[in-house]
Amino acid sequence: MKKVLFINAAWNLYKTKSSLFLVDFLKEKGYDVEITPFYKYRGLEKINIFKKLKFITNSKKYHTIIFFQTMYNVAFMSKLQCKNVVFVPMYDHYVIPQHRQFNKMLDSKIKILNFSKTLQNRISNFLDISNYVKAGGGGM
């Protein structure tokens, strides 16, 4: 079974549950999904996600690593020895994407998965590494 590491804010995972549709979809497709929040929900106490993920840079145990909504250090993400590193931006967080943030991804292996057509259009104006997926209405 292929392993997926899903990294997201605890708020989205446990309070709003806004990202669980993707976790559920991956599980339905037969993936073993490991969920890692990058900060604790109660009190929003931050944990050092880079320290926690340090072991991954020397490991190929994951088929895919998904960073949901929050962009991390692109240099760090590019060093992950996982063939599928995916960033999923959310419209409410990246209404006006910063060219510098996304331009750093051009020379990296990081893929972008968009659920917002508007955001997809804005990003694809200067990047060709983003894919749009329409969710809902009977599946993807």
Secondary structure: elements and pairs:
Elements lengths: L2 E6 L1 H6 L4 H9 L3 E6 L11 H5 L10 E5 L5 H6 L4 E5 L10 H5 L7 E4 L2 H8 L5 E3 L8
Order of helices and strands: EHHEHEHEHEHE
Specify the CATH class. Alpha Beta
Number of domains: 1
How far is it from the N-terminal to the C-terminal residue, by CA?
21 Å
> Helical content, roughly?
25-40%
User: What is the fold-level CATH name, i.e. the topology?
Assistant: Rossmann fold
Q: From the alpha-carbon coordinates, what is the Rg to the nearest angstrom?
A: 15 Å
List unreliable stretches of 5+ residues.
Answer: none
Share in β-strands: 15-25%
Largest sheet properties: 6 strands, parallel
Alpha-beta classification: alpha/beta
| Secondary structure tally, helices | 6
Description:
The longest helix has 9 residues. The chain has one domain: 3-Layer(aba) Sandwich (Rossmann fold), CATH 3.40.50.11930. With 140 residues, it is of the alpha/beta class. α4 links the parallel β3 and β4. The protein contains six helices and six strands. It is globular and about 35 Å long. Helix content is 28%, strand content 21%. The protein has a six-stranded parallel β-sheet.
